[in-house]
Amino acid sequence: MKLNRKITLILAMAAAATGLGWSGGQAQTATNLICKGCVGYKDIGKKAIRNKNIDKGTIKPNRLSAPTGAAGTTPLSTPNIVTDEIVRTISVEIPKRGVVVVNASAYFRFDTADSQVTCTITDGTEVDSPRLRANGSTTTADQRAVVSGTRAFVETTKGPKTYNFVCEPGGDDIDAYDAVMTAIYAPKNIQITP
């Protein structure tokens, strides 16, 4: 009997030492941990990383992301548009070559039967290709139409850039309402394979 108690006691001690005990487990925090990649609250706090913390040559300019940006305009209305009328314009300053994606939209009111309006998003001042068109008439259902589009401009130099939403009427008495433009700059362009 005494032998069984000794064996039971030895087995209980071995089970406790290896974590096989009968009681519930308890979590413990390691105190002897050596960690070369751990991040704590001091590592990400205010002014935690300074120039002295960064080894010389570890951050290379070609590995940094270039700045991007976006701009937008407020709505503008133009009554009785004429040929090559700039109904909205947006100007942006780009820090280096890249792509500027320009969106433009407006709605048009037609007060002449069988009218149309032709517009383009351009860095020029005349309606040119690609064209955006809308047809309208004096009937209630056809008196208003929206024209909207997007165009990307590959810019090879930095500096100020101006883009226009230029329209021309195909009839008399056509009004442009709530013309707006947005521009989004990205420092790189992607190649699209047809």
Outline:
The protein is built from 1 helix and 9 strands, in the order H-E-E-E-E-E-E-E-E-E. By secondary structure, it is mainly β.
What's the order of the H and E elements? HEEEEEEEEE
Structural class category: mainly beta
How helix-rich are the residues, as a percent range? under 10%
Instruction: Choose one word for the global shape.
Output: elongated
Major pleated sheet: 5 strands, antiparallel
CATH architecture descriptor text of one domain: Sandwich
CATH topological fold name of one domain: Jelly Rolls
What is the distance, rounded to the nearest whole angstrom, between the alpha carbons of the first and last residues? 88 Å
Task: Please state the CA-atom Rg, rounded to the nearest Å.
Answer: 34 Å
Question: Would you give an account of this structure?
Answer:
The chain is mostly beta strands. The protein has a domain at 69-186: Jelly Rolls. It is 9% helix and 41% strand. The chain has 1 helix and 9 strands; from the N terminus they run H-E-E-E-E-E-E-E-E-E. Strands 1, 2, 4, 7 and 9 form a 5-stranded antiparallel sheet that branches. Strands 3-8-5-6 form a 4-stranded antiparallel sheet, with no helix packed on it. The longest helix has 17 residues, at 2-18. The termini are far apart.
